[in-house]
Each structure stands twice: as structure tokens, then as C-alpha cells.
Give the backbone structure.
Amino acid sequence: MGERYARSMINDLNRWTVGWIDWNLVLDETGGPNHVGNLCSAPILIDTANDAPMHQSSYYYIGHFSRFVKPGARRVLCAASRQDLETTAFLNPDGSIAVVVMNRTEDAVRFGLRVDNESTTSELPPRSIATYLKNDQSMPV
């Protein structure tokens, strides 16, 4: 589920969408309430018997965008040179650059990341997502 959210977000944001939200961020453990009865999932499900949140994988995937891409950020051109990776990047109002990279394959993928004149290498485990943040001091976070 988290991968589906991230893939939709990356593809939409790379194609000029200026924001992204799901209509149901919190539901009960059955996927409701829902006015038409088609129960579904959400980033957070509530265990109503114990009044406890159950964070789903989509919650953590969304966090790669909401934590590092700040209000007022502008999307900047980026490209993955490997078809195994999906990516998007943003220039934040504070001048930092957030790059979100996702690996939806069953294998670890090594790659190079270049922002301006700085570069680094990294490896994403199978079926994972990571955010790299370049600020005035260094890269990555």
C-alpha cells in the first residue's frame, strides 16, 4: 500500500500536481465509516477496542514527502538514470533540496545521486524509499 501511495505521489508531482492528499487519512479497523459502504484502508487505522492507532505502510511513505518537502517548495527537474528507481525533487523555501527516491524492485539498487556539483552514492534495499536532503552544509541526510 505504501508503495502505491508513493508511486502515485511521485508520478503526480512530476507531472505538475501542486499538492497531494488522500480523502481518508484515518479510519477504524474495518475501513469505515464510509457513507457508501465500500470499506477501504487508510494511512492510520484505529483499533477502536483499545483506542490505539495502527500506522500502515502508507503513513510512513507519505512521511518522506510531508517531513522533507516544506510548504512553498518548488519542484525541480530530476531524472533517474535507472529504470529501477522512481524519484522526484524539490527546492524548499530555506534553500534545501529534498530528493525522494523509491526502489520497487526485489533487489537492492546502488546508485549515484548528484545535486549541483556535489555527488554521493547510496543503495536502496528492495522495496524501499529514502529521502536525501541537501542543505548548505552537506549531502545527504
